[in-house]
What does this fold into?
Amino acid sequence: MKEREIDELLAQATKDSATVSPALLERIAGSIKPSLRPVRPMLPGWLLTGGLILIAIAVALAGAARAGLSGIERLTVFERALIFPALGVLLWASAAEFAASMVPGSKRRFHPGLLMALVCLVLMSVFVVVFRDYHTTHFVSAGITCLVAGIAHAIPVALLSWLLLRRGFAVNPVTAGAVAGTLAGLAGITMLELHCPNFQVLHVLIWHTAVIPIGAAAGAFIAWAPQMRAGFRAP
Amino acid sequence: MAPDGNLEILMAAYQGGDFGAATMLIEQLSPQLHRFFVGQLASRRDADDLLQETWLLIHKVRHTYRVGEPVMPWFYGIARHVRVNHYRKASRVALHEEQVETPSELAAPTPGTQGATNELAELLAPLPESQREVIVLLKVEGMSLEEVARATSSSVGSVKQKAHRGYERLRERLAAMGLPRGRRGGLS
It folds into this structure.
């Protein structure tokens, strides 16, 4: 059987599908009439993306300025030229994806899992190229300090981003949560690259990068939890 | 199907609070949205409920549409969300009903309402949900690959793959049923 013949079958089955009753259409129109007021459309995507990037950079800069900019001060020009443009591109990609996830029918470039994996992979590749110190001094204690600092800076970014996009509507809240978490995690890691003077490869690869998957997982979980609670409340 | 440009104008007027535009949108798009739900194996009654629920949600989030963006993926993105939520709720209810162990004859659906689907649903029944959805949007609703990708939050490549696999399954099923070429021989 050819594709055209299946198309014909589908067309015929579609013709046979019953129409909507006029009474139902009237009921729908009647139900929206009382609350029909002019609304202000959401801001353009580029503006929301720009806002999200600004929030992430502002929080990272403020955090690093408060804690000290010893990380960026110790980096060479070559190292800075590799790390910060990479962070900028990834921030832009995550912010654009997050802004798109709040508008139904938007063009999506990355699956949230793929986005998170790409972000981690790109950053880890840059860190492997840039850093050459293979010591593991105070690996756990120094690592946990950085991880906590990164997450602590990701939280305000997530909250402020939610404030900016609160008028949006996510058709898939878990996906939107994961992307938001990735963006917040990137803000956290930006702060760490500005502040942390520990350039041991394993420290940066593991503890700095870990902020991103933790952020994405936390974002997805926070979006998923209300759905789960609703499940427990089901009749 | 109304041209997208016309729908865009109506959508902008709807956002401006024009009840006439809202009514025209409801009249133009409801049959398509209803067919989308029926094609996903919803009964007529469920499809009616889903349609109402979809319009209420469209009304609530109408500010998220941006003039200039494709209209159909926006509508179907919302319709899809309503359908998925409905499916989840129905699954939860079914789970609770099983736990209560209600006698089956009391819980049985009324003939001609709950189980009533049409030929479109019957034809697409053997397909997995994701393939069925893509075929309904592409072939029944006449959307482009790009529009389906937007409505389902996936890539064009993934839509193509699902449509191809769905067609393969349909072809196998129809061949197994021995349908004469180019003629509808009844699917039940």
